[in-house]
Hints:
The complex is a heterodimer.
Chain A: H1 4-11, E1 14-21, E2 24-29, E3 37-41, E4 46-52, E5 57-61, E6 72-79, E7 81-84, E8 92-93, E9 111-114, E10 131-132, H2 137-142, E11 145-146, E12 152-156, H3 161-174, E13 178-184, H4 188-200, E14 207-212, H5 218-237, E15 241-247, H6 249-262, H7 276-284, E16 288-289, E17 294-303, H8 311-319, E18 322-326, H9 328-332, E19 345-346, H10 355-374, H11 386-402, H12 412-423, H13 432-448, H14 450-462, H15 466-475, H16 478-485
Parallel strand pairs in A: 8-14, 12-17, 12-18, 13-14, 13-15, 15-17
Antiparallel strand pairs in A: 1-2, 1-6, 2-5, 3-4, 3-6, 4-5, 7-9, 10-11, 16-17, 18-19
Helix pairs in contact in A: 5-6, 7-8, 10-11, 12-14, 12-15, 13-14
Chain B: H1 12-28, H2 35-42, H3 46-58, H4 64-76, E1 79-85, H5 91-104, E2 109-115, E3 122-127, E4 130-135, H6 136-146, H7 148-155
Parallel strand pairs in B: 1-2
Antiparallel strand pairs in B: 1-3, 3-4
Amino acid sequence: MNDFSEYLEKTREVGTVEEVLASIVYVKGLPTCRPYEVVMFESGEIGQVISLTPEYVEVLLLSAAPIMGGTRVTRTDKKMEVVVSDSILGKVVDPLGKSLIGSLPGRAKAEKMPMFTTPVGIGSRKNVSEPLETGVSIVDLAIPLGKGQRELVIGDRKSGKTQFLQQVVVTQALKGAICIYASIAKRWSDTQKTLAFFKKFQVEGKVVMVVAGPADTPGLIFLAPYTALTYAEYFRDKGHDVLLILDDLTAHAKYYREITLSARRFPGRSSYPGDIFFVHSRLLERAGKFTRGSISCLPVAETTFRDFSGYIQTNLMSMTDGHIFFDGDLFARGRRPAVNSFLSVTRVGLQTQTNLVREINRELSKFLVVYEKMRQYMHFGSELSQGTRETLFLGERITSFFEQSEENIIPLNINVLLLGGIWAGLWRDTEIGQMKKEMYQKIDIYNKDASYRRMVNKIITDTETFAELIFNLKEDSSILMGKRAT
Amino acid sequence: MYSELLPLARTEEELEILKKELDELKACLYKPEGVYEEALSKKVRAGTAGVIRQFTAQGVIKDKAKFFEEIGKALDSFKTLELTIAFEPREETIERIWEWVRKNVGEGVVVKFKVEHAIGAGCILVYQGKYRNYSFSKRLKDDFASQKQALLKMLN
């Protein structure tokens, strides 16, 4: 931004601050000011015009510094813009694009993109057709996602949502996607933990973090997801597949509510303004699968006591292509990740999967329902029929297989093969603890040994059906059991 | 309507003084007889008192309360023309500028003088959010900017 006097000489319009109400400033003057235009205060702070009345211009303050009554304001004749360039990768920036850690490199090749745009029309969009691997076993098999899908991640606070998102970012970054992580109103310490996680997996160079903490102004927090989306659009336009995380939109809605209540807007349901649906939908509508590149968006919504019938939560559900529900009860029982596959939905993810994964998904969903029903008979022990005991035995192993710490990323092909192995009864006589140990050894070999990886990938590619996979594994289990089986 | 009062409010400061005087007189309306007359002679400027007396004599003020209410509203609707100049204006300068404003901008406009020596000469005008810089410093800056190369060449 240039300085105040430069803009004043350019636009030749000036106003004065008449009233300051929290983050809303009422300005008199600026006769030809337009909605969403950026205005600059004499003190160098900036704001965004949110509405116009015959007497006043209503400005949303974007800087933390206090504004005094009588301060002069000028127009900039610009709307909110984000400076974008490839050099932004690996940086932690605020919603105005200022670096929060270290400095930004020279921006000679940088261009500016508008922060608020109309979503791309249907002519430039494509069907969601490619799978999006999350690296989380239960999600990849039970609730698979596709590139360009918008999947809501919903759950109580401290139920493992952020850990899951971090795993997805690492998986996608390792696969070459660009990841944009918008940390909205989260504590700085939490943001640093997320950053440390990315550094640990050496993917920080593929990630842009847009951070607006609770200490920032509500205006700045409000802009955070829009800035993140603008970065995503920049990389999408270059043909990249982009993963966008908006963590979280319920906090975003709360800050928007604070802004609108300060601006004396009429409160609607739960005191949210009438346009809260529009605010979020125009944001999520900008994601999707395009003729060139894709933006897969994982917005987050927080629930209270597992109640996902809240206003913002249901709004977000209706805007997205499904949701992954992180169950607080499962988390309390020690399940990691605490994904409740019965209450989770994926609307377009399945169509992107191979026949094999689709069939596994079908079988798995059916089986898990039966297993959940059978669990109530567990205490009968030896009195149970052979079939029920078999179901419980397999269910226990599958549930245990889905237990996955945030440090572990499981690639899809080895994931499919391991599940096939459990289903084929390869670890039937092995203790669950030992089984998991052996499985993680295989995952480790898969990640490190290219020839083993090729073999596994070939098996998965050549196999058409789940039954065929089971049959082949029963015939020859050496790929999973190695020397142990021979 | 009350154009005789206009010369008493040429600048923003004078407008404030006039408003205070009228408020003072309005407050005396419901006090014992003689208080209003005393306020008119002692608490307001001679010019203001003269105009009020003239209005009374001409029968303009039929209902004093209504008169003060109307005049208060009219004064509140006055617009301000902010004029930044490089010197402290003298009485005749104020008068001349105000006459010019009255003729060219219209009645009901008061001038707010701001003195800023840094502008050198000329003026900066701000009226209803519009900003125009006709100062010498701006001219100088623009000239230096447009002829930067030529000037550097001359100096070298």
